[in-house]
Amino acid sequence: MSSSTEYGSHTWELLLTVDHQHKDAQKEFLLQVTGDLHIGGLMLKLVEKINIAQDWSDYAFWWEQKKCWLLKTHWTLDKCGVQADAKLFFTPQHKMLRLRLPNMKTVRLKVSFSTMVFRAVSDICKILNIRRSEELSLSKQSGDTLKKKKKKDKNSKEPVTEDILNLCNSPVSSGLPANPGLYSKTMTPIYDPVSGSPASSTITWFSDSPLTEQNCSILALSYPNCSPEMLAEMYQPRTLADKAKLNAGWLDSSRSLMEQGILEDEQLLLRFKYYTFFDLNPKYDAVRINQIYEQARWAILLEEIDCTEEEMLIFAAIQARTPSHKLSLSSEAQDFTCESEVDEVEAALSNLEVTLEGGNSSNILEDITDIPKLADNLRLVRPRKLSLKAIKEYWFIFRDTSISYFKNKESAQGEPIEKLNLKGCEVVPDVNVAAKKFGIKLLIPVADGMNEVYLRCDNEDQYARWMAACVLASKGRTMADSSYQPEVQKILSFLQMKNWTMSSQATSEPENVDMKPECFVSLRYTKKYKSKQLTARILEAHQNISQMSLVEAKLRFIQAWQSLPEFGLSYYIVRFKGSKKDDVLGVSYNRLIRIDMATGDPITTWRFSNMKQWNVNWEIRQVAIEFDQNVSIAFTCLSADCKIIHEYIGGYIFLSTRSKDQNETLDEELFHKLTGGQE
């Protein structure tokens, strides 16, 4: 038998702090505990000691020194490693968070601070009625971008000062699992479970979501742009190094908000992190399409992505289409709730490309054994050092994923002058419709870098066919692929939009039009042209798209954005192993690009399809990647944590496994396996 003094020696005092809203109630409690007391038992003892009647089910222990949650309630204090010096906070797992959405609106809602960010984002998207939550993530705003804003005007207000949309009464916010409600994973018609009538196809697909029709309209509709003065106050990257700062703030998807130092009611950015917009459907994705459109729009306006003057005017005209209808908010909302109008949207978009990889395949079954080929006279341009470019016409044949060229058509039966394998190359459009210039810039990987080749086409049709073939070949596909014809049509559609900016049709007098063109273009063009000049050029293009529906206009904008050479590239400053200078690493959905920081020219491209394995040496924070043919690279990241790049690579590979045949239940375990890095 042990004495009472001996028994007492096994107990020790543990100080617990309770995070509750009762101002006059005690917040610190000293409990006598033993090492074999499990976490659930400690909770019970503490709640009895507090003696306040309320729902404590969402509360859990946060260990301040270790920066971790004690969520395994069956574990003992000894197993958790908790000793007398531990500072444990008994605090709610769900806390208020402010999120700045891609459309610059701010929503305030309760989010789980104890689950991994990947799961938290999924819950947030359920509240906001955004499908495919795996494409989004949370980011801190870069400290450098905030400093530059303050330097411009210390007394200036926040660029967009909107009323905060409060969504704190959601089931997810309350710590309850979200009910799938009206959401249909198989894209079948949705019906109201109460009345049995068809439910509005763009209002929330969660019956218990806090989004009312009015709130849904706020997230699914666009509003007039901010003033040029406000635009001037916002951070605009000028160099690749500046663009790299934009990608430094992504949170770790495999850790909780609390573990990453996020405070209650802090503001974070909710953004599309991965540029693979899978299965866009106007019938179900009103909010998602609008938020993608808004993210693209702000990227254009703030010059986060480069585009030509022609392209800027196209984007301006489509933007002008979106708010140009002088409708009230309620009448715009009807465009999303009236079934007949939704049907018109579906008809207008039936042949529209809305996915990155291309749309519906042709109804005609192609003979896959007959690989198509292209044969044309094209001009070959090879840059030469210390001299002018050499331009010469040859007979070109495109077969499989390679281009061969000959002196002329008659010599095509013999050996080619050169054969270019385009698999893994970079394809960059070099087009100026006004100057009738239709060029294709090819950056072909070779042992010591990239071989630069330019092809010049004679007209739009020839350019579209060859450009589409080059794009597919770079991905290892031939013209027999079902996405070839849609790719050709997409390119022709984009060229047609560029033609709009050159229209000679008579337009309304700019003086008679109530338009602020400075709201639709970046600051570079407001400095270059007078307001009347911009208005006239935007109106010329706008005439041709004035009959588009709102949704179609947004999808056209997204499609044009996807056609830009820099689309989908996230930049980071890195130092490659063995190198004495810093480089920029561009991460895309299917490849990594090493870019010269001084010139912006691509040096080398590595395709994910050739990747064998990748890992991180956490001691020296170095990412190592091994490719086919004994190619291996290693680098340290200087502009962000190496975990961010590691997660980007794994995340894109995870998203490439998605299929329309699957339901939308994600393999969360696979995501963390590919992105976690086993730190």
From TrEMBL:
The keyword Protein transport does not apply. It comes from Calyptomena viridis (Lesser green broadbill). Residues 379-475 form the PH domain. GO terms for cellular component: cell projection; focal adhesion. The keyword Zinc does not apply. Keywords: Cell adhesion, Cell junction, Cell projection. It holds the Pfam family FERM_M. InterPro entries: Band_41_domain, FERM_2, FERM_central, FERM_CS, Kindlin/fermitin, Kindlin_2_N, PH-like_dom_sf, PH_domain. Residues 141-160 are annotated as: Disordered. This is FERM1 protein. GO terms for molecular function: integrin binding. GO terms for biological process: cell-matrix adhesion; integrin-mediated signaling pathway. It is found in: Cell junction; Cell projection. Belongs to the kindlin family. It comes from the Eukaryota.
